[in-house]
Amino acid sequence: MGIFSFFKKDKDKEKVESHEEVHSIQINAENCQGCGRCVSVCPNNAYELIEGKSSLKENFTCRDCKVCLAACSNDAITFVN
Ligand code: SF4
Ligand code: SF4
């Protein structure tokens, strides 16, 4: 309950260069305080706030910088391989 999982959709080119694994990003809505830091820092504008909770946009792209992970001080964002 309260945990949403989103799968990355744009890994084709970057994956070849960086050898990164495709993984999912999970947002724990119970931990999310709606501070908006993930929304502000993501270079791909992947996040949005919906009713005070962080959410990944439907067609978001991700470059695996993990800036959002560092920005969230509430342990609401998790990367899962
Ligand atoms: S940085 Fe963390 S607590 Fe703040 S809106 Fe994003 S997921 Fe929620
Ligand atoms: S890892 Fe980087 S590009 Fe991907 S969602 Fe987080 S801040 Fe955005």
From TrEMBL:
- Is the keyword Iron in the record? yes
Q: Which SUPFAM superfamilies match?
A: 4Fe-4S ferredoxins (SSF54862)
Q: Which UniProt keywords apply?
A: 4Fe-4S, Iron, Iron-sulfur, Metal-binding
Indicate whether 4Fe-4S appears among the record's keywords.
Answer: yes
The record ties this protein, via Pfam families, to:
Fer4_10
Q: Which residues form the 4Fe-4S ferredoxin-type domain?
A: 23-52, 53-81
Q: Name one GO molecular function term.
A: oxidoreductase activity
Q: Which domain of life is it from?
A: Archaea
PANTHER family in the record, alphabetically? ADENYLYLSULFATE REDUCTASE, BETA SUBUNIT, FERREDOXIN III
* Protein name per Swiss-Prot or TrEMBL: 4Fe-4S ferredoxin binding domain-containing protein
Q: What is the lineage of its organism?
A: Archaea, Methanobacteriati, Methanobacteriota, Methanomada group, Methanobacteria
